[in-house]
Amino acid sequence: MPQTPLQTTIGSASAGDAYLPANGNGGYRAVHYDVDLDYRVATNQLRATATVTAVASMRLDRFSLDFDGLSVDRVTVDGVRPRKVSQSARKLTITAATTIEAGQRFEVTVRYRGAPHPLRTIWGEVGWEELDDGVLVAGQPTGAASWFPCNDHPGNKASFRIRVTCEDPYTVVANGKLVSRSSRSGRTSWTFVVAEPMATYLASVLIGRYRRTDVAAAPVAQRIFFPANLAHETGIDFGRLGEMISLFSGLFGPYPFDAYSVVVTDDELEIPLEAHGLAVFGRNHVDGLHGSDRLIAHELAHQWFGNSLTVGLWKDIWLHEGFACYAEWLWGEASGGRTADESAAWHRAKVDTLPRDIIAGDPGPHDMFDDRVYKRGALALHALRRSLGNDAFFGAVRAYTRERRHGTVSTGDFVEFFTVHTGSGEVHHIVDRWLFRTALPKL
Q1: H or E segment to which residue 54 belongs
Q2: Which residues are 80's β-sheet partners?
Q3: CA dihedral 348, 354, 359, 360 (to 10 degrees)
């Protein structure tokens, strides 16, 4: 009689995403992170404690967290020292003192320290980054592990509390609502709470000598943080931010968070960055001439597509970048520039000159940030809009952002939702032609 194999009690050291096979972890879902950072800007020294609240999805004796580049001082599981802790280049592996039962809620507390730095990846360096005078966290797609232990995969969203203590001259900006600020002995602690589920790669901390301007309270609170030497240019370039939010709220549905913050660093940045509830631009992105309106629109649109609606697998990244790119065209038309039809035709002609060696709907990890993914994603959306008509298309978009709000999405889910909501049999064919074929369709 064949023997029944013993059921493992070891959580996988991967979330099973082929694009990032070393990222994420199995056996549990993180539901909340409490991250307390004590940071010295001058020396780039960090002492921190992170508590991860999780729910086991199986019986667990051993499980892992993504964590890289910092030294662990102490680990507890529900207040008890584990039987064993081991740290490799990418993982913190914990063997619990007692078995964690399936469905059980448990807390892992990690006390750690070191000099945080970005992680080297095939997409460049990501994570905690020192600026000339401050800090920037750019976590997409695998940088969260550079500053706190986590289940670093977009399919596991969680609430957060982030507390940062640093020297008094600096302002700290992070995701969520600032719930407290207190100063003592020349150092100030800033505490932020993110109530909505947030992907770990969207967690961000920015530290700098910033001024703050509250731009408007409606349709959502808008704040801009900037160096004093860029006050004039920043005021001009972000002067139409409220109009952008109003436009996208009408087209995409209500803005998904309580507030929107923009940070302009005193350093130049290669590209702007989106994070949950905020966006980051370099000094090279402000010129006082509205030269970056396209980028401002793009990062704003990610609040809906990427931050509220987040892909569960990175192969579906066109759902983030296609919508954000399409938002650039929509803002261009609304602000008196090219119509969306004209932008689509112009970009299709440009894409037509590029190699046809990429499947935008599943581009592979090396090409997931390729501009053809962005543009073909936007062109697929424009083709859908032309097929369905304005009312049906934007009605479906608003229903989609409402029903999937703060959730996880996929290409299959998108196609099914739009097909059912609009009753159109063309949704699948349009998505397939634009995103899963190398040939470039005509508009």
Answers
A1: strand 45-56
A2: 77
A3: -50
